[in-house]
Amino acid sequence: MMQKNNTFARIFNILVYVFLYLPIVVLIIFSFNDSKSRTVWSGFSLHWYQELLQDEEILAAFSTTITVSVIAAVVATVLGTAAAIGFHNMKRRPRNLFLTINNIPMTNADIITGVSLMLLFVAAGNILGFSLGFGTLLVAHITFNVPYVVLAVMPKLRQLNPNLGEAAMDLGATPWQAFWKVLMPELRPGILNGMLIAFTMSIDDFVISYFTAGSEVSTLAMQIYAMTRKRISPEVNALSTILFVVVLTLLVIVNVRQVRQEQLNEKRARALRKGGNG
Amino acid sequence: MRTKSAAVPYVFWMAVFVVIPLVLIVVYAFTNYDGAFTLENFDNIDVFLQVFGNSVVLALIATAICLLIAYPFSYFLAQEGPVFRKVAMLLIMLPMWMNFLLRTYAWMSILENNGFLNQLLGLFGIGPVHIINTDIAVVLGMVYNFLPFMILPIFSVIDKLDHKYIEAAQDLGANKRETFRRVIFPLSLPGVLSGVTMVFIPSISTFAISKLLGGGMSFLLGDLIEMQFLGSAYNPHLGSAIALMMLVLVLVATLITNRFGGGDEGTVLM
Predict the structure, then answer these.
(1) Searching chain A, which residue's CA lies closest to the CA of residue B165?
(2) What is the pLDDT of residue A147?
(3) Is A31 part of a structural domain of the chain?
């Protein structure tokens, strides 16, 4: 596989990106359109960005989305990390059983997860006297988020030296200290990765929210879906453009930092080797 | 450390919010409004079989197209340098940060009868072609939305292929084509299978894409379920019966993948 790519391969791959980004480009360009049309360009304006700042419905939906995603990601991270540690220390049989159940929300169709939770919430609500709303939405999000955290943390636990905790305790650490000061730093990349995936999944979700949020609260995706019935206001294009630019910027910063860090580490390692030889 | 008990809260959570809801689907599917056992929810199944068939066919076509795009893409990409590969994969994931309904809605502007595609074709004196509100538009929407789910697992498998196998094949006299057919392709099969399920399952169950790009002309299994729970035809018992059929389909698809993919390969999707 070490041969160089030919022109055909390059063009093929470029076309895939064109396909993926074409609607995004359309969306971004028309967020600056002067009129409401989504096919006819009538001049540059920041009109929709100004409207956006005054649209309480969209801003409320946006804040619901962020609130749900942040709380769900944090709760799922705690629950999922604890679960992964527990599963890791179990015998093979119960571990495999629990991991299989853990996989269900990930492999199942979203619509089935959505309607099945809706059935539960409506039935339990009738008995306990609550209705669909922010609470049920949050529980649903946590439910589909935890599996990703478990899956991100498990490999880190497998790489862990099993004697590390005991060594710490032999040296006088309490079990809690051993956990926080020795195990936690080893697990941190997996936990953070899991939290990021969980957050992304929450932000991106439409189907499960649609069935579990009821009619009182609305996420941004639900708001957009309701709008597609009539006509999507270009304000939403404006908001998406802002979000897209923010994510792009964050990705660039994180990656540039990572590359720098790697280069730095390499330099240090080289300096150390030199020092050792000399 | 003996910390099995750390899993207790989540095991409890799974029992209540994963297992019981699925049991409820089965219960609702086999009961009527009064809670009595019945099979009447499956009475009209022959009417739904057409929708079922239509959904399966469209989902299969979308999955096949995704595979035909994603495999060569991943194969070509794997031959680029490490930084290039990393950036390229980030660019594959980036669109997912923009709400999929909006991106699908943007396709409406492109495909409409007086949309960008027809404006472009008009410049060359072709068209207008009628795509919006047809099955073609729905399949395009599926391919567009789920293509990254096919690329990710296939690329990660091809990218991690041990080059020694390929060198060994070449040393033993295999030409390029044979190396691909007998070494690279079989080794990348777990990624392919994982990608196939990850595209097929959301395709078979979508209702938003068919509503936006199919315009009600293309009625899928997902639309049918949505209608029973939140739409005009409110009937959670019938909805559960259809959801149960879909669940069986999802289960069969997953089992086939696991059977050929072998054991732990589900982790490829991370």
Answers:
(1) A1
(2) 96
(3) no
